[in-house]
Protein 1
Amino acid sequence: MRFRILRFKPPPKKPAARKPEAARPAIPLPIDSAFFWEGVEAGELRIQRCVGCGTLRHPPRPMCPNCRSLEHDYVVSSGRGIVYTFVVHHHPPVPGKEMPFTVAVVELDEGTRVVGNVIDIDPADVTVGLPVEVAFVENEAGRVLPQWRPQSGKTAT
């Protein structure tokens, strides 16, 4: 085996010149998700839809992954779906949350998937395929968030 170890002394670093804050251009947000949060406040689960091909996508993105269109609007979801996969969070403690709690990926009846907490059920009773419906719950900070509860009278298939 032959190899060489090259050693060098890097030049001293020069402090970078800082631009004044006023000279820096504002970085635009990549996507406007205001429609989603306005829907949550109104008690609707809104899902972004591509105007070009009709593909639903969540979370909202600037470009359709299917046809690459930049045009989009939204549809109001039925708010029903099934637990696609889930995890029961035991540790580390989360301020304002009672342990354990369940976080699930829910596949909506419309075909797209959304992440959220599963409430009103013991974490041990959550299963893949459990029918759930959206519930809009206000958290400790006063922000309304979509969460999931079992559909009344339904069990996992």
Protein 2
Amino acid sequence: MLIALRSIITYVAVALYILLVGPPFVLIALISRRHTLLYRVGHGGVRLGMFLSGITCTVAGAENIQRGRAAVYAVNHASNVEPPLLFHALQELFPRLRIVYKAELRKLPVLTQAFDLVGFVPLQRGNPEQSLPAIEGAARALRDGASFLIFPEGTRSRTGELLPFKKGGFVMALKAKAPVVPVAITGARLAMRKGSLVIHPVHVRVSFGEPVETGALSLDDRDVLASTVRARVQALLAAAPSTRA
């Protein structure tokens, strides 16, 4: 009962934060073109949600974060809390961090405008007419120095088992000759299981692996690249300490 009440408080507080704080800063960013402000405001909302819900996060392998060059960060996906937690873990890349997200999220007010301003990329699953130009645009942003966070499984895993990786994010990396950093997040599935709205207070661990270089690879190697990164994410998951609520 207490956890459910805490979840409601978290949802209400974060929604009010977005609706009250978001619009003025979106307007300021539009006028001033200082998009860094939106990253800070967004991170503030993430920190608020973490504090109210009781979720804590630690980072392992931070030395593998590519601070001096653009990279693609490929992470497993089993819970709705994972994208904001990865945003938090990669905060030192602001404002050069972009996220590839499901186009369905464009229904959310305020966030859509903020996502567009900072260059986040929506993808419509099963729609190559939209996804192929989006991947081309993301590859250009990569070449220009922006890093991308992707969830190559394409959807959340109900069991926590790693699903097959889709190739779009790896095509993007290959086109830009950017390294792919395997990332494993553990504990988040206990915070919020697929199909549940209750947020449990848990400790989450984000582990960054060594980057997989793509400079010598071609588009024909996309299957090999996806398999290699998936195997490394699987190894990071297996090596992570067990987490519990």
